[in-house]
Design goal:
Blueprint (H helix, E strand, L loop, with lengths): L1 H18 L8 H8 L4 E7 L2 E7 L9 E6 L5 H8 L5 E7 L2 E6 L2 H13 L6 E5 L4 E6 L4 E7 L2 E2 L3 H28 L3
Antiparallel strand pairs: 1-5, 2-3, 2-4, 4-8, 5-7, 6-7, 8-9
């Protein structure tokens, strides 16, 4: 009974997030497929993103502000425009896809972790286990972080921004390919 109540509550929250447009559209199909199974429910998830973050000071992620955020390929011009909005430390950050889900059994959790690993998500694991559910994280290593501006001054050349943007886009696409493989691995 606890599982059913928990799952129902999570699905309700997801529906509200979908209505508000807060769910990455690149993940909608996978999320719907996972949630169609009575023994699974998705938690927080992201399809991967490229961002320009303005940090007030090194390590102060709590007060960081996104000056640009993309879940799709980005141009060097968009990166440069977002960097011009940074007044402190302007960082380019690429994050891989990440999917958190809860399942009703340890056996299902193990099966999903193995599917994530086969799809190329090297950091797939069981995060927690209770008597009625397990929480699984599926993520990978397509990470890139680079300081590009300081105190409003861009520190790198336009050529470097172009090269870095190309690498960021490639990392984002690699994550998207892994999401497509994950969907096949989960047989959804």
């Amino acid at each position: 009974m606890r599982w059913e109540m928990f799952r129902s509550s999570r699905l309700e929250k997801l529906n509200h997030a979908l209505e508000r447009g807060e769910v990455d559209r690149e993940l909608t199909g996978l999320i719907e497929s996972i949630n169609s199974r009575p023994d699974c429910v998705t938690l927080s998830s992201c399809s991967g993103r490229i961002g320009i973050i303005d940090l007030p000071e090194f390590g102060d992620k709590k007060n960081a502000v996104f000056r640009g955020k993309w879940h799709h390929e980005v141009t060097p011009e968009a990166i440069a425009t977002a960097l011009k909005l940074c007044s402190n430390e302007g960082w380019l950050k690429v994050e891989p896809p990440i999917i958190h889900l809860a399942v009703s059994s340890l056996e299902m959790a193990d099966s999903i972790v193995k599917s994530g690993l086969r799809a190329g998500f090297k950091r797939s694991c069981i995060l927690s286990v209770s008597e009625w559910k397990a929480v699984v994280e599926i993520t990978s290593t397509e990470v890139l972080e680079s300081l590009l501006s300081l105190n409003g001054r861009i520190l790198v050349s336009p050529d470097y921004i172009e090269i870095l943007t190309d690498r960021a886009n490639k990392k984002l696409e690699r994550g998207m390919e892994k999401l497509r493989r994950l969907e096949r691995e989960l047989n959804l």
